[in-house]
TrEMBL record:
The keyword Transcription regulation does not apply. One of its GO terms (biological process) is gluconeogenesis. Its EC number is 3.1.3.11. Its cofactor is Mn(2+). The keyword Manganese applies. Keywords: Carbohydrate metabolism, Hydrolase, Manganese. This is Fructose-1,6-bisphosphatase class 3. The lineage of its organism: Bacteria, Bacillati, Bacillota, Bacilli, Bacillales.
Amino acid sequence: MDAQFLDLLAQKYDTEEKVVTEIINLEAISNLPKGTEHFVSDLHGEFQAFQHVLRNGSGTVKEKIKDLFREVWTDNEINDFAALVYYPEEKIQLVKGDLCNKQALNRWYRQTIEQMLKLISYASSKYTRSKLRKALPEQFVYIVEELLYKTDPTNNKDPYYEEIYRQIISLGQADKLIIGLAYTTQRLVVDHLHVVGDIYDRGPDPDKIMDTLINYHSVDIQWGNHDVLWIGAYAGSQVCLANIIRICARYDNLDIIEDVYGINLRPLLNLAEKYYDDNPAFRPKLQAGHNVSAQEILQITKIHQAIAMIQFKLEIPIIKRRPYFHMSERLLLERIDYDNNEIRIGGKTYPLENTCFRTVNPQQPEQLLEEEQQVMEKLLFSVQHSEKLARHMNFLMKKGSLYLKYNGNLLIHGCIPLDEEGNMEAMQIEDKTYSGRQLLDVFEYYLRYAFAHPEETDDLATDMVWYIWTGECSSLFGKREMTTFERYFILDKETHRERKNPYYHLRENEEICRKILMEFDMNPDHGHIINGHTPVKEIRGENPVKANGKMVVIDGGFSKAYQSTTGIAGYTLLYNSFGMQLVAHKKFNSKEDVLCNGTDVLSVKRLVDKELERKLVRETNVGEKLLQKISNLKNLLEYRYMK
Ligand SMILES: O=P(O)(O)OC[C@H]1O[C@](O)(COP(=O)(O)O)[C@@H](O)[C@@H]1O
Ligand SMILES: [Mn+2]
């Protein structure tokens, strides 16, 4: 081993005892059971449902409460306590309203703190004391540790412990402590969170999801196609930007652009008012319970058309300057017969409905009006100068990647592009051809390059980000074409169909999944592929666990807009030391419902895989690093101290 490296290490571990202590510590940790991984995907701005799943650890919190108190509590008592762990601030207020006097409240405090401590002690049983300490409410660490680790068989210290409880209550600290302990429990039941893509679009609060993730103790993200669209906009792609605004208009979510990220939509509105009118194909899909006036609906409808037309125009030059994108079929504005209001697609002529082509020059359909150009420049400027968006996008880049190998599993939002025979599908980019893992690595390279160079807006890297959103070989889109134009302007539904990459039927086949795992240098006997992106239609009998358990698809429809097709409200996956379990969630109504009626309709769990032996930290990604460190320290011990 490099003597220089060992000398450096010796600066930190400058006595034999320090080296030995650390080795013992790391060896011990690597023999603990592995922590619980929690997988979610396709959150699509549904912050309320997402935070509920985080707070209840996909049912893990309630399971632990049941393990401890099943014999002595009724179902109602279990639900009440669970609600307290999920939403402590609100539940305490409700309890206070219910209890008639101070004495009763104090009794409740005393009892609740003790029960919370029991739960924490149980939930942290596979962690080190030091890890638990980091999860405890900071201001109460000392007293909580006193109460947690009381080991006095003689009961000599009973009055001491009693006094601690009494003081907490009489000094008015009980609320704060209970709240802190509730959050500790939430944190302990999940060691690490994976977000398998699509945080953004359709739902109202992607920004709140981002803030939650930023504050989460341990998380990684696999970008979804919608996340990439936002990254693209921030990285300087006007066409990605037009898309995100179009989707926000379509789902009545322009507040996200305007109020949350502070991007001024006034110039776009002025343009929209000038050139567009009401149009049934562009009316927004309204959120349930969202009150929107007729005038606002009209405004959004106009903006929706204005930005959609800009998007269609902006696509043309990119398709032309990148022939290897193979998207000439999508030069639709050039194929319109503007006199007869019809279009030829796939050898057939279709009438166009609900058209809004006033700003299109039939001779040069890609040409933006000067006003359109100015609007896009201003929008891009504000997007790139939104401080909050910068924070969120930087976090997406820091914690995100196109795919992730983690503890033997391959996590990817969309797909690995395949041909019908199950071979890795190849894509030519400039004068080189890539496929499989290499292709994904190239996509990620361009995406990171585009992000690092926001001032370059028409270069290959920026165009490539848009390709990842919509191109036929994209690992995130996974379809042959995106039929946005047809969905707005052609009635015949046959034209709306988006043909999926063969991956989506081949992934049912175990051999194919094994082949993909091997492509990524992973062990096909132990690994799984974890996918999001395509809603599993449970309602029609589709099974989210495919290919003899090698493939798990966890998009179950957090997105309200998709719940009627899936029949459930989202899947999550748990992977603890005993194995993998898929959880199907029932529709999340509201926090109030959980608080008042205890309706935390417990999700149905299905076993995906059971470990033959309990999995230990040493067999995980983190464990690998620990073992490396142990080996370095052992070398140091020999080199420096064992003469
Ligand atoms: O249902 P909407 O909002 O019109 O969106 C449909 C579009 O969304 C996509 O399904 C992509 O979004 P997803 O990643 O959520 O599937 C496109 O393929 C399709 O054209
Ligand atoms: Mn997706």
